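#structure-requests
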Amino acid sequence: QVQLVESGGGLVQPGGSLRLSCAASGSIISINYMGWYRQGPGKQREWVAGITSGGTRNYADSVKGRFTISRDNTKNTVYLQMNSLKPEDTAVYYCSAHKEGYLYWGRGTQVTVSS
């Protein structure tokens, strides 16, 4: 069992920045990939960014150049630094962890970009 807890969401103006955190606990051994997804109002959940156990990073085209995913292995935490935020980025952001072919999910944190 893996537990994921997201934090750092909130209200920010267009052009502003936020940093999301995802803390993993429980049976975290053998987690080989962690990622961020988001789901806007009336939309399907979409993949945003991911990082492998080896440190390889990937991003969706919609956030490339603005978002940065990183990890701190000593804290079992993954971060998503979001810069130059746009209203289109408004969504519930979910953290995921891949372990032995199974995908775990956090509860999500709300990000609202509005003036």
